[in-house]
Amino acid sequence: MKVLFLLTVFLTISVSFSKPSHHDAGFTVDLIHRDSPLSPLYKPTDSLADRLQNAFRRSMSMALCFSKRASFGSKIDADIFGFYGEYIMKIQIGTPPVQVLGIADTGSDLTWAQCLPCKNCYKQVGPPFLDPTSSTTYKAQSCQSKACEALAGQALSCDSQNVCRYKMSYGDRSYSVGDLAMDTFWFGPTSFKNVVFGCGHDNNDTFNENVSGIIGLGGRPLSITNQLSSIIHGKFSYCLISGFDDASANKTSKIHFGDHVNVTGPNVVSTPIVQKAPSTYYYVTLEDVLVGNNNLSYKQSGSKPGDYEEGNIIIDSGTTLTFLPREFYNELNSRVTNAIRGEIVGDPQGIFGLCYKDLKLENVPTVTFRFTGADVDIPPVNLFLEVEKGVSCLTVVPSDDLAIFGNLMQRNLMVGFDLVNQKVSFMPTDCSMQ
User: Do 288 and 390 fall within a single domain?
Assistant: First the structure.
């Protein structure tokens, strides 16, 4: 009954939109890596090692937050490190439109931004706060609205004006509290009316001062991807470039919404999305990992080889590293070590379990993640990353909780989500040419 209720709410919300002002087939938005010189979060004084270490620590924080939200008894040993997320989207909200810089997050649903008047807001030095009184298309949502019902447990008690209040918590100290509302959203020149979002009046200070809030791309009804489903036909895709090398310094990754960029062709492989709680996350099933010619049956602690559960790993664009169950990670580490002839050194950052001095990528074996129905080859440049000069480390780390297929593994893949047919597709692509 809960699934039927959410589906009914989703359909009610999604059909309420007007058609976009341009490009009915879809639209494309830049995804700016937070460590790119194009990003407002970029710190020119940070070295490459600094940026990498910060990204890895954010990965640990992200994994911790995911595990808590998925009701795992989290055992990941990591301190919360600022706010997670690696890619920024620029959109506009309101009439007249006001720029919003949001962390693009496939692990969140409700989009929110800081709003006036602000009871308790973090310092924001980038775009201005949204002012609901200045937008002629702003509409606060009542506690009886379908949008409020779709919050499904994230709604607070009504205020004296019967405005629906939301609270988003992210598993750590970070949260946003405010009014649920509708307004016009602009993605470049493309506008959509009556998009539901959170107008945040109480947001704690773990968020970065250069961003306005969160852009939710998760799987529940109030995410951008689901709200626009009747227009984009439930499809979105992204193509990620590296955020850490000079060659991509002045380029952006892309996220596409709609049918205008189809992930199709002879090199495309697809795997089913598995419905699990929380439905925010995009769960898929990892069956095996192939290291050269050696096949490792995916297993979790206490399970037998080949005895995997469906939906045992999530795909996330906001987590840098890939997390695998500790027992399976140890086997993978051993097989990779046996295949590479090189000098093993300690991790200078204390994060990774396998590092090499002066690693030659041609010596790294082909590694294939074998999802149900989809074999995804991981090139050596995605599997190992030079964390400081002359030291390269395996970008997979152990976890005792949730498994995550991170964004380093997804570089130079077109990753397409079809929420109507419930599948994720992968296609090798030079994302710098997108």
Answer: yes
Instruction: Name residues whose C-beta falls within 8 Å of residue 304's C-beta, 6 or more positions apart in sequence.
Output: none
The answer on 166 and 307 residing in a single domain is no
Active site residue 400: no
SS (H, E, C) 340-375: CCCEEECCCCCCCCCEEECCCHHHCCCEEEEECCEE
- What's the CA gap between 230 and 13, in Å, rounded? 10
Half-sphere exposure of 42 (CA within 13 A, CB side): 15
pLDDT tens-place string over residues 380-401: 999 998 888 899 999 999 988 7
From 321, 358, 322, 324, select the one nearest 342 (Cα to Cα): 358
CA–CA dist 33, 245 (Å, integer): 11
Is the pLDDT assigned to residue 70 strictly greater than 60?
no
| pLDDT level of residue 199 (50, 70, 90 thresholds) | very high
- The answer on 304 and 242 residing in a single domain is no
Are residues 71 and 156 both part of a single domain?
yes
- Marked catalytic residue, from 35, 179, 316, 401: 316
Can you tell me the distance from the alpha carbon of 396 to that of 324, in angstroms, rounded to the nearest whole number?
7
Tokens found for residue 400: 């005792």
The mean pLDDT of 56-85, rounded to a whole number, is: 53
- 80 and 160 share a domain? yes
Tokens representing 47? 């070295």
Q: Cα–Cα distances in Å, from 167 out to 106, 146, 211?
A: 18, 17, 19
Strands 253-258, 423-428: pairing is: unpaired
- Stated pTM of the model: 0.86
Instruction: Encode pLDDT of 152-189 as tens digits.
Output: 766 677 778 899 999 887 655 678 899 999 999 999 89
C-beta separation of 352 from 360 below 8 A: no
List the CATH number of the domain containing 354.
2.40.70.10
Q: What is the pLDDT of residue 259?
A: 84
Residue 148 and residue 7 share a domain: yes
In this structure, the answer to whether residues 217 and 354 fall within a common structural domain is: no
Cβ neighbors of 433 (< 8 A, separation 6 or more) are none
Catalytic entry in 35, 105, 109, 418: 105
Evaluate whether residue 329 is within a structural domain.
yes
Active site residue 430: no
Whether residue 200 lies inside any domain: the answer is yes
Q: In total, how many domains does the chain have?
A: 2
Q: Pick from 213, 227, 225, 214: which is nearest to 182 by CA?
A: 227
- Name the residue range of residue 190's domain: 2-246
